[in-house]
Amino acid sequence: MGTATTLDGDITVMNAASVIEARGLCMSYGPQEVLRGVDFTVAPGEVIALLGPNGAGKTTTVEILEGFRAPSAGHVRVLGAEPVKGDERWRARLGVVLQSWRDHGRWTVHDLLDHLGRYYAPYSTPDRRRPTSTGELIEAVGLTEHAGRRVNRLSGGQRRRLDVAIGIVGRPEVLFLDEPTAGFDPQARRDFHDLVHRLSDLDDTTILLTTHDLDEAEKLADRILILAGGRIVADGSADKLSREVSRDAQVRWSRAGEHFVHATDDATAFVRGLFQQHGDQIGDLEVRRATLEDTYMAIVRKEEG
Amino acid sequence: MNPAVHAARLGLSRGWIEFRHALANPQEIGFTLVTTFAFIAVIYFQRDARIPGTDLSLAAATMPGILGLGVAFNSLMGVVGSLAVEREDGTLLRAKALPHGMLGYLVGRVTSVSLGALGSLVVVVAAGLILVPELRAAGAGGWLTVFWVALLGLAATLPWGAVIGSLATNPQTAAGLSMLVFGGLTSISGIFYPITALAGWLQGVAQAFPIYWLGLGMRSALLPDAAVAAELGGSWRPLPTFGVLLAWTVAGLVLAPPILRRMARRESGSLMQARRDRALQRIG
What we know:
The complex is a heterodimer of chains A (about 300) and B (about 280).
Chain A: H1 2-11, E1 20-29, E2 32-42, E3 47-51, H2 58-66, E4 73-78, H3 88-91, E5 94-97, H4 109-118, H5 134-140, H6 156-168, E6 174-178, H7 186-202, E7 206-210, H8 214-220, E8 223-228, E9 231-236, H9 238-245, E10 249-255, E11 258-264, H10 267-278, E12 282-289, H11 292-304
Parallel strand pairs in A: 3-7, 3-8, 5-6, 6-7
Antiparallel strand pairs in A: 1-2, 1-4, 8-9, 10-11, 10-12
Helix pairs in contact in A: 9-11
Chain B: H1 3-24, H2 30-46, H3 58-88, H4 91-96, H5 101-131, H6 140-167, H7 171-188, H8 200-207, H9 210-222, H10 238-283
């Protein structure tokens, strides 16, 4: 029996504490209610994309989590602390990339990154050396050629890459990115996606990003949150969200030179029937579920009435 | 490694880097440059005029007051001006996102503004030594007094620059308004002509502010002993000078941190507003 007890103890799955917890989060600016009860949690190592129309409160939500703004009501915890009361040690475990910086124009890329990184040195631990080496980081964001250039001489996209580098120079355990890829060309966007994957895989960084790019959200995020009307109206993987909104899939095929389209909620059975009936005559078969964009539009439209 | 001490040290290096940036970009410290050269011009035009009944040149009588005024002006306006810009461009928010970042930012700002003010002082003193022969008579004791009065003057005005720069809802207006108040105070503080020529109540007002005492302290350091006759009460009043400047320092250091914190806490609001406006422009 003793052994069984021990075994029991061993098998008990401890729910890993969530890194981000928001419950009943409300925020109003005067009479204007921006958030009306936002609920979600994020587990360690998850990559979350926060989507929503302009003015839905994405930035407000992120700023509350970063501790830059106190919510009007609700419970919020990031790495176990209430963000507005988070101390410097807590702050050192966070990475922040806000929208639109124009600061430090006279500094060179290398000097600025090196200087800001040094603030994290007292918080270095054996398994998490802080800060990241400046040279490696500059290379990781593709700014090596511009390391000696003044920040105000960078293009918009380069500037944004520097912002991302500054956000991760302290090797954060949680990283907040508010529209990180605004102004990126396709190559920079792809490099950024690689970087996010690397952070998530190698450094186990928990990442919350806001974006308007649904394709990006689908590629990067384990889970997508849609914020509309001041609430989280959808929470799940891109696939799960699509299924929730519509189980219909479009099946296209051709037979004897003619093209057909059919909408069905059970594409597999439909296609099986199709082959049973017509066998080899079926060509150009294509089954298409609702894309994230279709899903997003449907959800937001429903919310906004 | 104590993280706060570490951040303060980073602030020092930050201040030094920003001071070097300023030197390399004269247009960005135009303000300090213009005032420095304006002061030198005043001394230049006054160098041959004598104060009636004495053999002291007008330039020699004005010069110490100008040094004191310059310290107060460059430090106060330096902080008000940089806060005005850096609240809006995201520098403060960037600092907020770092562990002990605000501490580093403030130490950096104080360092770079102090270096700017002291640099300007050194340039004006150098010009004075060339243009005003009487200055060369000042001994080591006199220059030591210049030094401590300048340092105390910085301490008495820097925190107030932070208070003004933080309280203002519109930082540009704050800069304009403090210029105006500064000009008004200067005109009654006995910098360019003796305070004894003013009405008694104006003398009282002037003595409540640091500018008068900075001027007095500098005159006590650099003018011949006989010049004390032109001062209020016929005395250099070193202890009251020290006392008043110290009182402003202490009051500033007590008031500035909570006001700065409050301002920094609110900062994301205005930034967000600006962002929203820009976003609307993009759509429209």
